[in-house]
Specification:
The protein has 492 residues and is an alpha/beta fold. Helix content is 19%, strand content 26%. The structure holds S-adenosylmethionine (SAM).
């Protein structure tokens, strides 16, 4: 066995027993078996086949979107990624008891999700709000919440690389119990910080203090870890900058003079006794910070979406370009989107079909398509087939050498439900993954669906679309906000 002080004693998982140093133990329903042994998560690997591929620049597809309950997807993910993930961020449901729906933009009907809210598509037919996103209804109160989290964290810890970092985003309802749970699973010695994200918003409570912060627990897998405070410096207040900029050196850089013995600031250079300290770009990061809620331009309509600035801070500090970043309660996909922007690889999962649809659309909206990715799904978590009456047709080219284009058409209602569509091929018929050649999305800001797509084939009078008996067969596919998919015929 390795010298890892966290090496398992009762199986290939986290150590058992009390949290911290043995002086305090959190228990929860189902923690122990009837014989007193610690309950362990089910490690049975379920098939998690790739159902869609969206190649990025130069055909890159190194990232993975995973559909299904993470307790069931984790054993398969561990088989592939154990010890290889550099950063895990989790933002699970907080135990609010609420059922969350996709949100339409106030006062308007536009937006990527609006169409689905207005049409008869799935269980929310006719609803004025959008389709269901997810229900935060873990039974059993706080004990039930911890019982839900415990086996997942036990498996997720094993995803982490030896220098990996773990962030758990919660609020005051659950963070205190979750701290003890994490101490037990990650080791109290690996607790690094309790971060506080402070946000603004209307204060309405009059009988208690207004809740204006979330809590993020930060653990590392071991005693060495990646951390770059210089990438997330806090900006200096203008008054501090002015006070610190009393002197300017030969290169025009402001500095202060400090005594070497720690005795504060000196008025002038005294060689041997003093040194010059350049005014830094900012101060080292604190364990609390302010960040606004997701900007309007970032909003996807998915409830409880976190701001990109928050994720950018954690990912920049705790990973290197090229590292693998994972989020298995990924919702609207803030983590994979920011990971892709910062040049990291990503693994993102969610049990909600609406979340997978929101992430697919949001990633495809990125200039590099999220870096290219595959969608894998448990047998019962792939997009259910919908019956939208749509057709894709070649658009006749005005000139013989115009690049080819195809256009998606259908009834206004059916088109309105579409948040993304693509043409591509099917790999290894029958039932093989859909491989997108070109994709189009509904813009989340304007609500406009791009109905034309460039193709690599000519759509003029002499066009030969590789449909029907051709190999590979070209097919179309359209996805809705509630998470359904429709294979769309390509008409000649
Ligand atoms: C608070 S939201 C995450 C929001 C996300 N951070 C964002 O920025 O959009 C929590 C997510 O966890 C998902 N979830 C809940 N239980 C899950 C489970 N057992 N497996 C996978 N995902 C789950 C929900 O569907 C929901 O999308």
């Amino acid at each position: 066995m390795s010298g890892d002080p966290r090496a398992p004693t009762g199986g290939p998982s986290a150590p058992r027993g009390p949290s911290a140093e043995g002086d305090l133990e959190l228990t929860w329903p189902g923690k122990y078996e009837a014989d007193g042994s610690r309950t362990r998560p089910n490690r049975g690997v379920e098939p998690l086949p790739v159902i869609e591929r969206f190649p990025g620049p130069a055909g890159a597809m190194g990232n993975r979107l995973v559909a299904g309950d993470n307790l069931r997807t984790l054993p398969a993910l561990l088989a592939e990624f154990a010890g290889r993930v550099d950063l895990v961020y989790l933002d699970p449901p907080f135990g609010t008891g609420d059922a969350f729906h996709l949100q339409t933009r106030r006062g308007g009907t536009s937006g990527a999700w609006a169409g689905a809210a207005n049409r008869a598509d799935g269980p929310d037919a006719g609803a004025r709000r959008g389709p269901a996103a997810y229900a935060d209804r873990q039974p059993g109160g706080l004990g039930g919440f911890i019982a839900m989290l415990a086996p997942r964290l036990e498996l997720i810890r094993e995803l982490l690389s030896p220098t990996g970092s773990f962030y758990l985003h919660l609020d005051a309802r659950t963070v205190h119990a979750a701290k003890l749970l994490c101490d037990e699973i990650f080791g109290a010695a690996n607790f690094r910080n309790h971060l506080v994200w402070v946000y603004a918003g209307r204060e309405l409570a009059r009988r208690r203090y207004n809740a204006k912060h979330d809590d993020i627990l930060f653990y590392t897998r071991g005693r060495t870890w990646t951390f770059h405070p210089e990438r997330i410096l806090e900006p200096l207040r203008e008054s501090s900058r002015r006070a610190l900029s009393r002197h300017v050196d030969e290169d025009g850089r402001p500095y202060v003079i400090r005594y070497r013995d720690g005795g504060g600031f000196a008025g002038r250079d005294e060689p041997g006794r003093t040194y010059r300290q350049l005014v830094p770009d900012g101060t080292l990061p604190r364990d609390w910070f302010m960040a606004d809620f997701a900007r309007k331009s970032q909003r996807t309509g998915y409830p409880t979406q976190k701001p990109e600035a928050l994720l950018a801070r954690l990912i920049a500090a705790s990973s290197e370009p090229g590292d693998l970043v994972a989020d298995l309660f990924a919702g609207s996909g803030t983590t994979p989107v920011v990971a892709a922007i910062l040049g990291r690889r990503w693994l993102a999962g969610d049990a909600s079909r609406a979340a997978i649809a929101a992430m697919r659309r949001r990633l495809l909206a990125m200039p590099d398509g999220g870096g290219g990715f595959e969608v894998a799904a448990l047998a019962d978590a792939g997009p259910p087939a919908a019956t939208l009456d749509l057709v894709i047709r070649p658009v006749p080219a005005a000139e013989p050498h115009d690049p080819g284009r195809v256009r998606i058409t259908g009834s206004a209602d059916d088109l309105q439900a579409v948040v993304a569509w693509a043409i591509g091929t099917r790999e290894g018929e029958p039932g093989g993954p859909f491989v997108a050649a070109t994709t189009a999305i509904r813009d989340s800001w304007t609500g406009e669906l791009a109905t034309d797509l460039p193709t690599n084939f000519q759509a003029g009078p002499a066009a030969e679309l590789p449909v029907g008996g051709a190999d590979p067969v070209c097919i179309g596919r359209a996805w809705t906000a509630s998470g359904t998919a429709t294979d769309v015929p390509i008409a000649r």
